[in-house]
Specification:
448 residues; mainly alpha; 22 helices
Length: 448
């Protein structure tokens, strides 16, 4: 048993080293890790291939379409400029808030369907315009936007990270994850916005309480091509459908209506419906819009699907190791259960940079040991994903593509980005962990 645990530890170390210090794609790193683990455990070639194919196909068939439909929704919002319109409408409605908090809310809502990297690129010019019009420090607004985009990206489905983690950990009901992840992400967005506010106050910038008349005119001009209902539908409809799936469990399972509702509220169908509604955002003169959305969505989805599926192959091999009876002897492991997903995800994130890869890989690693961590119940898995999510935020620095997107698009120097953006993500991660641990302890008291 201890040899098997040592193999797992060695594989984790090798994963970190290979992803961090070589140019190998994460797919090949996971593939090599799977082969090496199988060899170390003494499996022959036919057994190894069987496990690889079984694990790969299980995840590919389970989350492939989820990721593809999710990226199509994001691509539609991006290519139609619907995300920019949505941001301006939100800013208009939240005009009485101090600017960092309004910008943080924009990030919170836009980042759920759109990757935070792409969303920051899309919204960076709007952020600069807000800074110029309201006489507010761009540095503070940049931190508010970057942290506002970051928290939902790692905590709220249908973003790929938490969605794939839910699939890897075999979560059957996304209702709890959407609600818990949404609440935690909102609190962390507030923390990021508060830090942005502090930067603005420190630099002595004027905080304008209202949206400028120019911003209002921009919103009104864009209303000719968009409306709030049509722009929000691709985002809200899948979430509403998936959350509604929780209530179908209370219905008579023998009724045909119940079967139809279960089909309609399944994550794959819900996201497919959202993707179909996103096609309504087609600009009048963009004749190739549907083709461009499919192309952009495919380009974004394919690497994630392949990495996720190969992570499933590694997880399948790990699951063949019978460690439960031995590890349960160590009561301290159960007590530290909620910290272990955070530590693994934070280690992977800090070492190799990608939050999505950190969540995907970490969820594959912890799946076999969920019972020993006391996290094998439905709500326990949700706590595990929240712990993975805040771990994958800690921290964004020079090996993270998002770090460079933030610095380049905002005009900050690397030193300034470390002092603001990187520190803000560390702040979000630490406070997020505190909230998750506290919430988990209260939940355990409540259920026992």
């Amino acid at each position: 048993m201890f040899t098997s645990v040592g193999v797992i530890f060695l594989v984790i170390v090798c994963l970190i080293i290979l992803v961090s210090y070589t140019k190998l794609h994460p797919f090949w790193v996971l593939f090599l890790a799977s082969i090496c683990m199988a060899m170390a455990l003494g499996y022959d070639s036919s057994t190894t291939v069987e496990y690889l194919l079984t694990g790969f196909w299980k995840i590919f068939s389970g989350v492939g379409l989820l990721i593809f439909f999710g990226t199509m929704i994001g691509a539609s919002l991006e290519l139609s400029s619907g995300s920019v319109y949505l941001a301006k409408r939100i800013l208009f409605f939240l005009g009485r808030l101090p600017m960092p908090f309004g910008v943080g809310v924009i990030g919170y809502l836009v980042s759920i369907p759109v990757f935070c990297d792409a969303a920051f690129i899309i919204l960076s010019q709007l952020n600069k315009s807000i800074s110029q019009q309201s006489k507010v420090s761009l540095k503070g607004l940049t931190v508010a936007l970057s942290t506002g985009l970051f928290a939902p990206h790692v905590l709220v489905p249908p973003t790929p990270g938490p969605l794939v983690a839910a699939a890897n950990l075999e979560v059957t009901n996304l209702f709890y994850l959407v609600i818990a992840g949404g609440i935690l992400a909102f609190i962390l967005v507030f923390i990021g916005s508060l830090y942005g506010y502090y930067i603005i106050i420190r630099e002595g910038s004027l905080l304008s309480p209202k949206v400028s008349s120019l911003e209002k005119q921009t919103v009104q001009m864009n209303s000719d091509n968009f409306n709030l209902y049509k722009t929000l539908m691709p985002i809200l409809l899948p979430i509403i459908l998936m959350v509604s799936g929780a209530f179908t469990l209370q219905l008579n399972q023998e009724l045909r209506l119940t079967s139809a509702l279960k089909w309609l509220t399944s994550p794959t169908i819900a996201l497919a419906i959202g993707a179909i509604f996103s096609f309504r955002l087609k600009p009048k003169n963009h004749n190739t819009f549907l083709y461009d959305v499919l192309r952009r969505g495919t380009i974004q989805a394919f690497p994630i699907i392949m990495i996720t599926s190969m992570g499933g192959a590694l997880a399948t091999i790990i699951q063949t190791i019978q460690m439960e009876d031995h590890i349960m002897r160590f009561s301290s492991l159960t007590e530290l259960g909620i910290l272990i997903p955070f530590c693994i995800a934070a280690l992977l994130k800090t070492a190799q940079g990608s939050s999505t890869i950190a969540i995907i890989t970490s969820s594959s690693i912890i799946l076999p040991i969920l019972p020993m961590l006391g996290l094998d119940s439905e709500m326990g898995k949700v706590w595990a994903i929240l712990s993975l999510g805040v771990g994958s935020m800690t921290v964004s620095h020079a090996n993270d593509s998002y770090f460079w997107v933030v610095t380049q698009m905002s005009g900050m120097s690397v030193r300034e980005a470390y002092r603001t953006h990187t520190f803000a993500t560390l702040l979000q991660g630490v406070i997020g962990l505190t909230l998750v641990v506290g919430g988990y302890k209260l939940w355990k008291v409540f259920i026992y």
